[in-house]
């Protein structure tokens, strides 16, 4: 399952914090990433089929990779992991445990995924091409970000000289996964929910004015959009380097199918909601750990 969520721009987050920390009262507004999560379909898919869907599409590995983003949490607050004690790693692992994350995703899928969507998505990813795609996507989800970025950047430069058509296919592929600004809005919402939860829990020294935070986030939306576009292209170049141009062109066609578009809208929304929820839970745990360090 092709997913991407480039959560953190640490330098931008630290700058944002210095501009919005103030003693004003908190107003916390929690939003679902996409409205589809709040509307259950007439006939939801069977849970056993949903668990099989997670595996055949690789969405189980994509969900597990959410835990890797936890390492950025202290940096998003202008802090370091040492500020939260020697048990930071185990604390983050508990909050982002595979059992919890998968359970949340399955609950949301059970309430929203129809048999039609499930069968369409699983049918494609169970094919020969689909399984080859899942294999490289699973490996990419768990790869070292620095290595993946360096390799992807080099490949983008190489393709620009030797195979510009392949670059165009990769750009089409990324646009098919997120054709609008959903990725930008999702990342902003995750950041806002985490920062507000951290402020409300007392992790930060001052309180955050949410309206000011959202305004500053909006000011940086264009920069974030370009950053996501560049990172997505680099990531795709790395991930799919073993596949042919024809394979990727066929993937683009499959992704543009209207039913597959609905599958991806739902899967992206679930991934983003799970991530936002877990970062809010992590903020509560960070508050307790920080207080323990200060005693």
Query: Which sequence of SSEs, written as H and E, runs from N to C?
Result: HEHHHHHHHHHHEHHHH
| CA distance, first residue to last residue | 45 Å
Strand content: under 5%
- Rg estimate, integer Å: 20 Å
| Major sheet attributes | 2 strands, antiparallel
Secondary structure category: mainly alpha
Q: What ranges have pLDDT less than 50 throughout 5 or more consecutive residues? A: 8-42
Q: Can you tell me the number of structural domains?
A: 1
Total helical segments:
15
Instruction: Give the proportion of residues in helices.
Output: over 70%
Give an account of the 3D structure.
This protein is an all-alpha fold. The chain has one domain (45-294). The protein has helices at residues 10-20, 47-57, 59-64, 73-76, 88-95, 98-112, 115-125, 128-141, 145-162, 164-177, 182-201, 210-219, 221-239, 245-256, 258-294, and strands at 21-22, 207-208. The chain has a two-stranded antiparallel ribbon. It is globular. Residues 8-42 have low confidence and may be disordered.
Q: What is this structure, in a nutshell?
A:
The chain is mainly α and 295 residues long. It has helices spanning 10-20, 47-57, 59-64, 73-76, 88-95, 98-112, 115-125, 128-141, 145-162, 164-177, 182-201, 210-219, 221-239, 245-256, 258-294; strands at residues 21-22, 207-208. The protein is 71% helix and 1% strand.
């Amino acid at each position: 399952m092709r997913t991407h969520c480039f959560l953190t721009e640490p330098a931008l987050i630290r700058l944002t914090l210095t501009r919005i920390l103030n003693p004003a009262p908190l107003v916390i507004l929690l939003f679902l990433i996409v409205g589809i999560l709040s509307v259950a379909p007439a006939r939801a898919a069977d849970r056993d089929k949903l668990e099989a869907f997670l595996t055949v599409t690789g969405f189980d590995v994509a969900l597990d990779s959410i835990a890797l983003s936890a390492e950025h949490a202290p940096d998003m607050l202008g802090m370091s992991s040492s500020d939260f004690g020697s048990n930071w790693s185990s604390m983050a692992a508990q909050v982002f445990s595979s059992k919890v994350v998968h359970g949340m995703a399955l609950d949301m899928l059970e309430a929203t995924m129809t048999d039609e969507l499930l069968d369409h998505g699983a049918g494609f990813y169970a094919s020969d091409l689909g399984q080859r795609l899942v294999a490289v996507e699973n490996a990419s989800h768990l790869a070292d970000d620095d290595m993946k970025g360096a390799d992807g950047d080099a490949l983008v430069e190489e393709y620009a000289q030797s195979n510009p058509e392949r670059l165009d296919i990769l750009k089409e592929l990324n646009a098919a996964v997120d054709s609008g600004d959903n990725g930008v809005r999702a990342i902003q919402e995750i950041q806002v929910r985490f920062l507000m939860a951290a402020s409300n829990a007392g992790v930060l020294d001052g309180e955050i004015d949410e309206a000011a935070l959202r305004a500053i986030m909006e000011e940086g939306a264009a920069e974030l959009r370009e950053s996501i576009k560049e990172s997505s292209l680099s990531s795709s170049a790395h991930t799919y380097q073993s596949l042919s141009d024809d394979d990727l062109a066929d993937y683009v066609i499959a992704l543009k199918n209207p039913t597959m578009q609905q599958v991806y809208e739902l899967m992206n929304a679930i991934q983003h909601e799970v991530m936002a929820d877990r970062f809010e839970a992590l903020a509560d745990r960070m508050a307790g750990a920080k207080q323990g360090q200060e005693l």
